[in-house]
Fold these 4 entries.
Entry 1:
Amino acid sequence: MFMMYFTIYIDMRFIEVEKTRYGWLNRLLPGVTRIFEDKIIIVAKAETEKIYLISKEMYHIYKKMEKHPYALGFFFAEVDGDNVKFSLGTADKYAKFKRKAVVVNKFGEEKFLYKRNIMKKHILRFTQDIHQDDLVVVVNKNWEALGFGKALFSSKEGVEQQGALVKHISDKGFFVKH
Amino acid sequence: MYDGYSNFLVNRFRKLFGKNFEKVMESYSKQPKKAVRMNNLKIKTNDCLNRLKRKGFRFSKVPWADYVYFVEKEPTSLSATTEYLMGYFFIQDATSTLPAIELNPHSDEIVLDMAASPGGKTTHISQLMRNHGVIVAAEVNKERIKTLLYNLERMGVENVISIRTDATKIKELNLKFDKILLDAPCTADGTIGKNKRLKKELSQKLYDKYSKKQKELIRAAKEVLKPGGILVYSTCSTAPEENEIIVEYAVEKLGFKLLTLKNSRYFTQGMPIFFGEKHPNYLKKCGRILPYQYDTQGFFVAKLRL
Ligand SMILES: C[S@@+](CC[C@H](N)C(=O)[O-])C[C@H]1O[C@@H](n2cnc3c(N)ncnc32)[C@H](O)[C@@H]1O
């Protein structure tokens, strides 16, 4: 494996890694590594690992650069041991795959963007591949990603139960503050 | 009479703007018009406009681009709309869209944005490059660079390498660029309409301080620009110390050639004479937007070739 170290920040190094190393992410979100496509993976390692995807032309420049970047290309996810936080950009891309998705109405969208859980009355439909405790992408009726949540139902059994059906994890409401 | 202004600034503006002085002061008494740049990386201009129109927003096109619109009616906060969160548009002063248009970056180029946060122009450059090629975005401020990253993520920009650095040391990267945008840190005296505190705070010392920094930055830009490369210099200031003086320095001392702006017809010509001093006539090729021209902030753009 080709390795590259930037020594300016002692606590942060940028490393090129092989795509297969993150194959396990597909267990959390089936097919998510399709996003890697023709990209090169660069990982910024400190206490956590930040995964970035870059094009070949960016890689060429990045290799020539004699200073560590702050961030680069497409921010894919942050990995902290077993804990993975997929980025909101990844939510956008994953929503296009139409897998592990819960579609919510306008009311649900507003609630979710205020960090609230999704209830039965918010759900318009969902994909048929959801199991209890799965990571799901929450989308609005136009299939625009709002963020990620954790399913508290399975598509086989449907959404008859009361209370929260998708627990909020991350959402784009965060962008308003910036 | 001129509420909140220091005598220094009133006298200065009177000398600088001459017969346009009253019009400038009148503009600065109002908030500049808000504008949005549609993000064609994610959505077609009309699709976004139609969605927002259905929510009661009203727009009018700016004269120089068909994807930049003034906001004429804003029934709720634009930044709280789904379209904003999806990164379908960027809210910025209309004049701030001019530098990237003048830079005219291509998909196969390597571009440097020397003072990038919060990324209004970086994301615009990326849009013009269709998310291809490479943009190196430099920003020195630790907090502001985070905002840059949020905006890149929101707008779906993927061709940026951001670095936290003092751009006067950009040479240390050991890269050469086809094009450079230097949207320089400045007094921002063109933004008095929304930053009222500037009426009191601006001083000759401050103009001179920024002028010195801007010279350092443009000198650093020269060192990393490929021969024949293009540099666009811009500020949200109308001060000659921060604009014409810097361009004159770039031409006389650094060997740049000043080019005619593609959108020159929308600008007020640069000033070869100011504060009673004569400077080279070529400075007319620079462009200044006076705040009353389009009810925006005051702005300045120059395009140079090495
Ligand atoms: C006029 S603002 C840039 C606005 C930005 N181009 C945009 O369109 O969103 C100037 C920026 O330059 C940064 N800055 C100031 N001095 C700098 C330096 N020496 N090197 C890099 N960035 C600097 C400031 O922190 C500020 O974010």
Entry 2:
Amino acid sequence: MSDLLRVTPSGLYCEAGGFYIDPWRPVERAVVTHAHSDHARPGSKRYLCSSACAPFVRLRCGEESAISCLEFGERRTINGVTLSLHPAGHILGSAQVRVEHQGEVWVVTGDYKTEPDPTVEPFELVRCHTLITECTFGLPVYRWPEARTEFERINAWWAANQSAGRTSVLMGYSLGKAQRLLAGVDAGLGPIFAHGAVLGPTQAYRDQGIRLPPVRPVSEAPLDVDWPRALVVAPPGAEATPWMRRFRESATAFASGWMAVRGIKRRRGVERGFVISDHVDWPALMEVVSATGASRVLTTHGYSAVVAKHLSERGLDSAPLETQFRGEAEEEGA
Amino acid sequence: MKRFVHLFEALDGTTATKEKVALLRAYFEEAEPEDAAWAVWLLSGNKPKGSANRTRLAAWASEEAGIAGWLFDECRSAVGDFAETIALLLPKPAGTRESGSLAESAAKIESLAVLDETGQREVVLSAWRGMDGAERLVFNKLVTGAFRVGVSRDLVVRGLSEALGVARDELAHRLMGDWRPTAEFFSSLTDGASTPLDRPYPFCLAHPIAGDPAELGAIEGWQAEWKWDGIRAQVIRRNGTTAIWSRGEELVTDRYPEIEQASRLLPEGCVLDGELLPWGEGGPMPFNQLQRRIGRKTVGAKLLAEIPVVLMAYDLLESDGQDCRPLSLSERRDRLAAVVNEAGHPFLLSPTVEAGSWEELGALQRSALGRGAEGLMLKRLDSPYGVGRRKGAWWKWKLQPRSVDAVLMYALRGSGSRASLFTDYAFGVWKGHELVTIAKAYSGLTNAEIREVDAFVRANTLEKIGPARTVPPELVFEIGFEGIQKSTRHKSGYAVRFPRILRWRRDKRPEDADTLETVASLFEPLE
Ligand SMILES: [Zn+2]
């Protein structure tokens, strides 16, 4: 019997159901796990995603995109294949895709994390026979500290910059990470501003009832604004642009799982790093793999070969899924 | 341990000198004396006398993390740094934990020196289990001998001086020579009690002259001497015993028995500053002759006869048991002459170079090479003997230099018959607290030295980048060259032409290596 899901030139394909999951080329029917750029690409005829994800897919793939929505847990049968979406905990609306056909269950995790995050639906563990998991941080050196302690460090950094007269510029990917940062910092410390790229997704989060502190656009800041008191949330890369000049003296920091490694911080020339990731770390990855009960685990994104080899040595049927995914690019904020 | 780890991180996070001094001060004010003593010891570039082999550490860490050896290697290549790899991959400490003090951690590491593999494993595992990630990183760096922080010894002295309220020069002196990091030692830094008998004085160091010497003012105010190419040393005669210290603060008394024996003729309570030189019938011998004696702990009669050594004395730091550094150079010189003339060979009085004008002196300076010297030293006659490298009183006026002291940064395997050894090296000079490459050179070393460097590279590899192995900045070499040119290939912006290794400067610490400014000044020579 052939695999329920397999890799084709356009992406991961379910032949029995006639749909693709996160295809990298335009297709007839695309099931989208979440709206980051290497998962949701414009040009497909029809999209299927979670209701919470739909506004972001519109932002990414165009207002006119034909999108049909599923609530989390709701089942839809397409050509005898039962499809349902389950929260992945990565960003708002991010989903794992469960596919069932003739009693066989596959789950595609998309990007996910199990750590609590007030801005997203909590990760749901879905049992399956075959698991396709991401491995962005699939090395045992990645073990996240508690987000709470990292946010305490961010607040302390902000306060220290205030007394040193430097504007705090905190960088994180504009969709997902930026909103998690906004929700996590101590908004009582001072005014919060955001780069233009962060504003759209932030409004979309608010529209769905996620509570975030007031954020003002940097571009509309009054002339006499006291920048050194402020926290500015910006996408990575902004630090190298003339956009930064208005802050004069500034302190920059980057919030990402990559910041766990000093060498990566140094290579990227990051002044200060906070380890806040929207992906699973190694222990969580191992825990999820075993809790799903899957006997076969296909790996994708990042350290897929390493994770597959490790799982094979632990007696699982595991191999890297040959895809065009190259792991979440660093600008994805990971 | 926690406090020291915070200091390490904070020092790592700033490049501002003032901030570093403030951090050091705050640390020394708060830390327990024994911890503080260890911090001074470690920040001055010393290592605990004990370590564990990297292969074992990797195996124990993999075991703790429940991963295979190949997966450890994957982690290592993703992280780069060995100590950090282990710190990151160990499981988080369970429940309440007690990481203990810095002194306790250091004692654990020192205990490794006398333990077998099982004993070492127990010590290291229990240390890891009690520590968080940041503490593990520092511990692992200490245990692998790779601990290094971007502070100079001078900065440490400054921070300590502010914390203890003891003058910097006095502290620098109290930190000289052999000492062990103990609570008693740290308290003695404040009261100056329990001075070891053989403690040397901090060396006064010269700056390279960066302009026309005539700008120093009237030549009458200056004493000129030949700049000798030997090993800077202090000979200390106190209480009927002799100690010879090299500038690298190594006790080398046993290596120069002829000096030690002759020092019995020195008066009691006397400290000479000078240059150890290989000296034949006709005067100074080339430095590479001395090289043959440097590496030896004990010297045989044959070598002693072949390469006799003298002390070319140029200053007197103590006489009649009194610190005479505050006296003017002219006064010290008079006393020095009396002492050296009385003692005789192998103590020589560094001759002064007399000239009526700077032009005349310039002509003499150009003749230095023929006299076995590498230029002139200019010392202000009314100056006291200073501590360290302070500007103003001592200048070195070298012949157009054709060499720099650079630090070994990484090594590659040789080719052909040397393919099994690391014989190709890249060297760097300091740009702030960072090393930048300035030259790549094949070995100009002896076979014994090559084997020694090869062993060092293997035991201390930090990172494998392609065929290259990076090593901690520890070994200093003098690199000779034909000229200097701008280069985009080297991160320093300069490259030396036809570089070759002239010698291994075992007498120099990595922080004594040249800076990028020096190299830049060589590129645009004034003459
Ligand atoms: Zn994503």
Entry 3:
Amino acid sequence: MAVSKPMERGTEDLPALPNLEVRSAASREPKPNGRERTALGQPPEVLLDIHRRMLLLRRMEERIGQLYAMGEIGGFCHLYIGQEAVAVGMERATRPDDPVITAYRCHAHMVVRGAAPEQVIGELLGKARGVSQGKGGSMHMFDPARNFYGGHGIVGAQVPLGTGIAFALKYRKTDRVCVTYFGDGAISQGQVAEAFNMAALWNLPIVYVVENNQYGMGTAVDRASAISELHRRGESFGIPGREVDGMDPVAVEQAGQAALEHARGGQGPMLLEMKTYRYRGHSMSDPALYRSREEVQKVREERDPIARVADVLVQSGVVDADRLKVVDREIRAQVMEAVTAAQAMPDANPAELLSDIYAAGS
Amino acid sequence: MREISVREAIRDAMAEEMRRDESVFLMGEEVAEYEGAYKVSQGLLKEFGPERVVDTPITEAGFAGVGVGAAMMGLRPIVEFMTWNFAMQAIDQIVNSAAKTRYMSGGLLGLPIVFRGPNGVASQVAAQHSQDYGAWYAHVPGLKVVAPFDAADAKGLLTAAIRDPDPVVFLEHELLYGESGQVPDGEHVAELGRARVVRPGRDVTLVSWSRGVSLVLDAAAELAEQGIDAEVIDLRSLRPLDRATLLGSVQRTHRIVSVEEGWPSCGVGAEIVATVVAEAFDALDAPPQRVSGADVPMPYAAHLEALALPLSETVVRVAHEVCYTDG
Ligand SMILES: Cc1ncc(C[n+]2csc(CCOP(=O)(O)OP(=O)(O)O)c2C)c(N)n1
Ligand SMILES: [Mg+2]
């Protein structure tokens, strides 16, 4: 019996993705100008843009963490710190009219799509001009005008929703592609498998992005998934998968571009596994007994996406370290302004308690 | 007697039953190594090992079904949902498989299984993580539905649920886990399906369950100061409903107010009011009233959330309404 190919729509026909070197602390000795640029393969203005966008997410989430500690934010609040390269790299690969959907760890995805940080923070503060008028909170944010469809609290539930969005894109004969994010824990939900099957069966324009940050709450991937190569989870449906260094925004962008092209070209779904890491606890009260401080520290030192890009920028002579400090100060000031603006918003209006359950006037 | 928290009472009931009966095991998300997302299963992995305290992937439909299958083979699974919100993924297995199998098999196949976890509102976690499923499960023949308030009942009723030959939905409350109470030493088994008069009174019956009992007790204390002697009933079981205790109380007080966190429409309060109206109409001196959560998905902002919750002030106000007094 011939050994059959594992999948019908193989990965062979896809352009090879660049394999970016993982920079370790040890390899941070100065390199001749230009070498890193070849490694990252991007012009300086692109790297500067990536750096700025990632830093904004980080500083915003750090500030949100502080506001939570001060009691200004309540409920569950899941920070994106450590995973910035995924949202930024994918956003750069995505067209503004490509719909995006994710789970509850959604502040960063909102902002990369173009929502103002003050609207996100305003929501967290329960303000009337927060994106969901204070009704949704941290886990439930939507920005349909910018093609962002949430912000969902039930693990895995957004995956069929994203698939339905892709169904509509195909139904309407558009050339848009839906990007659907979920976690390494979520991938085991039954409805994810159900969605994969329909997406492949109907050849839907969708890119599934599993943000493998190594843990679903306190459970490491290999304690939750029978195979730990999550990019292979689509194989039985014929969905090609790729493993990507999710701590490298350029690798993410390139993998995203290839997958989006694949889907946009009518070749159906693809699954990208972003190997990433969350530095903070799962939500705000997480004793983190399931991993060591050293493990977190090691990733921060060796794989941090922002430090990596910053290093390349400095070592290739695009900017010096002082200039990056100025950028950081500008971004901190931007975040502070957003917080001040959010705090000045009026509180969510009690008269709105019963509105928005049904369409106005119905 | 000794004083322990509701959290410890639940853990103790599970541990004691696991010691007594090796067919009892616990499964769910983060129950073993993490010792429960709300730290309810503390120490269980250490004592019973990973074969009996089983961490599952995040696959509620799957592991609820696995639990039902194991129960078909005579095991006594305790299936923990991290919260009941996530059991919505599994409600098909609970209703279509667990609840109906004994009936569909003409009594050949019973399912001794407990589904448990925190239910109801929690602080500012918003619409998808903050709701009361009491009425949902109380609707289903084939299920028993329990919602304890204090530590003694948490232990006694969970012990009874684990020993019960039929599927039991056991609704805990996150905001009660830390509350302490006196629990009898040694084995403590309560009877399923019995309400309890927590505070006897003459003027009006206030009935609730789970965390609602604390609201109602506060309201009763306040009413006492205003000269109204309220009787407080802790329902404890939403299915079967202890109609005899309810009707007996109304025969004495002639007035009743039900209090629940859930939505008003088709809620447990609706069933209570219907029961009283149909079976004790002549005893009533005022129309029965319900206090419930607002008819709205739970909002996030703290001050909106407060408007969506039943409060003891509201209970006091409505009690005055049915007593035709003003507070
Ligand atoms: C259906 C469902 N079950 C359980 C939960 C509780 N819960 C919230 S997040 C989470 C872990 C998810 O992990 P993963 O998918 O890896 O995403 P990450 O948090 O790492 O971004 C769990 C179990 C939930 N929200 N929904
Ligand atoms: Mg994860």
Entry 4:
Amino acid sequence: MPRIIIDGRPIDCREDISVLQAALDAGGDVPHYCYHPGLSIVASCRLCLMEMKVPNPRTQEPDWSPKLLPACQTPVRDGMEVRFHSERVRENQRSCMEFFLLNHPLDCPVCDQSGECWLQDYSFKFGRAESRMIDEKCKNPKKDVGPHTLLYQDRCVMCTRCVRFTQEISGTSELCVVNRGSRCEIDAFPGKPLANPLQGNVVDLCPVGALLDKQFLFRQRVWLLTSTPSICAGCATGCAIWVDHNQGTLWRLRPRYNPGVNDWWMCDDGRFGWRYVHDGKRIAAPRVRRGSEQTTPDWAAVPQLVRFRIEEHVRRHGGATLAAVLSPFMTCEEAWLLIRVLRDKAPASTLVLGPVPTAGETRHFPVGATGNTVKFTIQAEKCPNRRGIELLLAAAGGNVLTFEQFAEQAGKGEFKGAWIVGGYPQPWVDKATAKLAAQFELLIVQDIFENDLLPGAAIVLPACAWAEREGCFVNARGLIQPFQRALNPPAGAQRDGQYLYEIAGFQGLYSGVRVRAMMAEKIPAFAQLHEPPPMPRHAH
Amino acid sequence: MIRDEDIIRIAAPRLTAAERLYLPQVLDGMKTTLTHLFRRPVTVKYPEEKRALRVDNHRGLHRLNRDEQGRVACVACFMCSTACPAHCIHIVAGDAPWPDREKYPVQFDIDELRCIYCGMCEEACPVDAIELTPEYDFVGTTREQMVLDKEELLAVYDRTCGLKPRKNPRITGYPGTGHRGQSVPRPPADEAT
Ligand code: SF4
Ligand code: SF4
Ligand code: SF4
Ligand code: FES
């Protein structure tokens, strides 16, 4: 482990990193624009320059170099000495900041980035209060670089992070730098808009307000948003994300650093795939039907009611005629509670993994990458928790069927009662599945949208979107990733976890952590959670 | 929990004989009353008479100013609603329909009942679009009437701009104020280090 000395303070750092990264890891606030740990190093912004001791070419003795050196491009070496808090370094930062602001329009009040803008923060901390520019600022129009993204060219600081992202991570190279000097611009190649499935990341990467997301544009100011750590439910990759919400409304998703899973990135399907959460057509209240009469029971009565109907069914038809279809959109905790309820009342009941939605092929990035060169993967499996449900089914043992087997046997009338969990963002009940409803005497459906199973259901329970759930998902690599609840379910609905917790006979508030502790006693795998380390405080 | 050592016990002072008589205090009070009888009254017979207000800094009803072209001057930056301690400003921003402006408020509501008339919003606004006016006599028969929307706030401007013109100091050089690319005077040499 190399040890370097920054401002006289020895710091132990990881191998093969830059001085800048070492300083950031140690909690230092070193300004930087062009450096990003996930991209190649160009050392073009010159903001991170430091004083360093390098071997004197004549004597080979380490000596303070007459020039400042870029900390992002200098690898750490054992025993190396650098100075960050020095007047020369400060002066460079001041000059750089003045330079970045020469043509910057200073339109923070209308800029979406303000509040999370590194030009604002660094100007405040490292810049100077006034500009000495007496000439007209260069004006540059905003450009429509792709279906989701706008480029406000005059706010750009030419860090080329966006260009390097499209070259190195997405591998699609839509963006490029055109012209030179003060006429430098970022642009998309003519006829090739920024439309790759990872393009949303350039908006997060851009340290200033040059690249902005059209869907989020002008919707909220970022300081009004609360960020809750979550896991994307869009595919089996299980990207760590931030759910940014304000007063119960989701406004955007952003990737969260998760080395080895999604690193710093996420895909556009996940990023923009949350609109259904606020769909007005969601089921928001429980319904109970006896004969032709339908009522909306009070939530306090639901646990008792559900338990009674299941017990009644087991008394009449025996437990073996009961089945539960678990959706790969449930968290492990919810699925465990449901399995517990069912196996408690009817040990011979059948457990089924619900349909697993897929779309196209699993895609690797950069485009064409294989093996070690893969930097990001979008799974074809468009649900977050198939492996988690499989893990629980394997642990539960007993009768376990695939959904096809279940549909076939149910079609023959082998099951008289079923608890079917949906929660799919897309419509999932096809004609054949809808026909099964007639086979059941007791059908409990837990779903998020109206579908053709509901008319035949004895009990309908509203399901939640992932942002309203709490628990853990098991991703394609088998990592168990816990996440928190960001939103409350729509008015009138309750969280799946909460009512399942009560139906399972527990009292009080459902908490993923508490249920997980109980699960871990039975299934030790759930004691091993994958929680990514936070990014260093001043890194971006 | 209040700890015993934090409690300071104070005994009531003993009254002297003169104080216990109360007469000197009563006479003292009468003196104040009598002097006021011969002073010029500070009250007016409202609403027949109204006081002259200091137009520049009276903190009354809000208004939303118009820019030179008569459009709402607000650029929907949310500074006012962020600064407002009473959380009574609600803005919905949108794409401005004008080519020279980026963002404008599609909806702008102020709950005048919640407002505490502190003037923080006026202080926070980077384009001086929101201002408090000397208007104080506004009434409504329902709570909803006291939530002023954008049109009503602009109407307040139209009513009061003669009395109190928009300040517009043009401090910011961005499109909202039409001052993009304005040159900034060079600071004196000793400051420019
Ligand atoms: S658009 Fe943003 S990310 Fe791209 S070069 Fe400019 S500042 Fe950097
Ligand atoms: S005067 Fe104060 S309380 Fe009223 S809207 Fe402005 S900031 Fe809010
Ligand atoms: S601070 Fe001024 S410009 Fe910003 S939203 Fe409020 S009124 Fe509009
Ligand atoms: S030169 Fe080091 S971060 Fe840009």
